[in-house]
Each structure stands twice: as structure tokens, then as C-alpha cells.
Amino acid sequence: MTATTPLPTTPLPATLPTGDRAGGDRALRVTQLRVLRSEWTKFRSLRSTLWTLLTAAVLLTGLGAGIAAITVNQPEGLAPGETAISTSLTGTFIAQLAIGALGVLMITGEYSTGMIRSSLTAVPRRLPVLWAKLIVVAGTVFATLYVAGYAAFAVAQTILSGKHLNVPLTDPAAPAAVLGAALYLTVGALTGLALGALLRNTAIAITIFVAVFFVIPPLTNLLPAAWTAHFVQYLPSNAGAMMLGGSTYGVVNPLTPVTGFAVMCAPMLVLTGLAAWRLRRFDA
Q: Nearest 5 degrees, angle CA 85-CA 86-CA 88?
């Protein structure tokens, strides 16, 4: 019989070399930029979000053109309190419905499918997920609807030129109004996202958004003017409307565009703070 000679074995190191361990840590580290890339991938991968954003752009452009066409066919032309600029951006108020739904669905969709648990497992600190969603929504909504705002302005002014009611893009109020429309819709989307993150329920969040932006403002017209004159200008939709080209939209004591923007941002920031608090304190 012959003895079998055992093969030499090399013991494995108990730990990785310092350089390899550092490289592995860097590869696995969760950073805000990586979370942002992940949320951007989710956003552009969902057809519902892209179609909702496109719907808002079409509503902004198409409704402005429709109102302009109605205006040129009326003998009196522009209605009292309206301007050629505000007429071209009238679609902003309907587009905000699609944009609010987009903001809500950006996060409640994950709660309804349970995907939010995977997201928060990958990002244990949690808040970077919320910040990334806010950045993605704000960036895409603002960029898309800023371009759509100029398209709405150009189309409406072309129609209004039939009765010489149009104003050129070089009018000092025009660029500010288009910027205001994009900011208005961006804040609306962020408000919807904050509501969705706080309530974690699509139906409830969209219902509250619609009530605040669409239902409550018209209902205030049923109250005595002596009452509404003191608070109606502070409703988010009325405050933000002051950025859209000079029309007061029936508000007795309208705010300035800058003040209106600040007032519109205030509830969005409060809701975002509450959503961040709930995300940190309570399980998904």
C-alpha cells in the first residue's frame, strides 16, 4: 500500500485586507446620490408617471389655446380682470389635478404594492428616500411644464393675435408668468407627494388634494364678502394664482406674486415635515 500525501492548504485570511475592505465599503455604501438615481429609475420606468406628466403638459397647452379661441370669438374680448398672459396659462388650474395625482402616486404606489419595504430595507435611514422622491418630482415637473408653459403662451398668443389681443414674449410680465406657472405646478406636485407620504393612501390623499385646490376655493364664494376678504387670498390655489400674469381671479385683496408663492409653499413644507416625522417614527 502507498500512503497518500495530503495536498498543502493555504489558510484563508480571517478578514479582507484593509484596502479591499475599504473598497467594498465604498461599493456598498448608501449615499443620497445613489438613492436619487434609484428613484429616478423608478420614475422613468413607470408608464403611469410619464403619461400623467404628459397629460399635465397637454392640459396646460391645450386649455390655454381653447380659452384663447373662445376669447377671440366674443365681442367684448378679454373678460374683466383677465390679461392675454393669464388667459394663455389658464390650463394651469386643470393641469394641477394631474400633477397632484402624480405626486401622490409617486409614493403611495409603493405602499399599495409593498415595495416601500424593500426601499426602506435598502436605505435604513429612510429619509433619503423621501428627499430623493421630492427632488425627482420637483425636477421633472418643473422642467417639463416650464417648456409646456412657453408652448401654451406661444399658441394662445397666436390665436389672440386674430383680434390684436396678444402680447409678445418680450413683454416684461410674460417670462415671469410662465415661470410662475411652472413653480405653481411644481409646488402642487410636491404637496401631493407630501400628502401621499403622510397618509400612505392614494384615495384619501388625492381627495384631500382635490378638496383644497378645487372644492374649497369656489365654496368660499357662498360666504359673505366681508368674511372672505380676510382669508380667501391665503388659500393655496388663490395665493399661487397671483404668479400667473396679473389676473386677480376674483380675489378682493390679492397677494403679490412673491408673497403668494411663499404662502403656497408653507403648507407643502409643513406636510413634508410631518411626512418625514412619520417615516422616521413608524413602520411602513
A: 70
119: left (phi over 0), alpha (psi -120 to 50) or beta: alpha
Q: State pTM to two decimals.
A: 0.86
Cβ pair 191, 267 in contact under 8 A:
yes
pLDDT tens per residue across span 201-256: 999 999 999 999 999 988 888 888 888 888 888 999 889 888 887 666 667 788 88
Among 220, 278, 211, CA closest to 249? 220
State the cell numbers at 251. 380675489
Which tens digit of pLDDT belongs to each residue from 18-28? 454 445 455 56
Helix orientation angle between 127-160 and 47-72, rounded to the nearest 10 degrees: 30
Q: How far is CA 237 from CA 82, 184, 185, 233, 256, in A?
A: 17, 9, 10, 9, 14
Distances (CA, A) of 59 to 56, 65, 185, 267: 5, 10, 12, 25
- Helices then strands, counting H and E runs in the chain, come out as 13, 0
pLDDT score of 14: 47
Domain boundaries, the chain: 32-281
Residues 6+ away with beta carbon under 8 Å from 95: 56, 57, 59, 60, 63, 145, 185
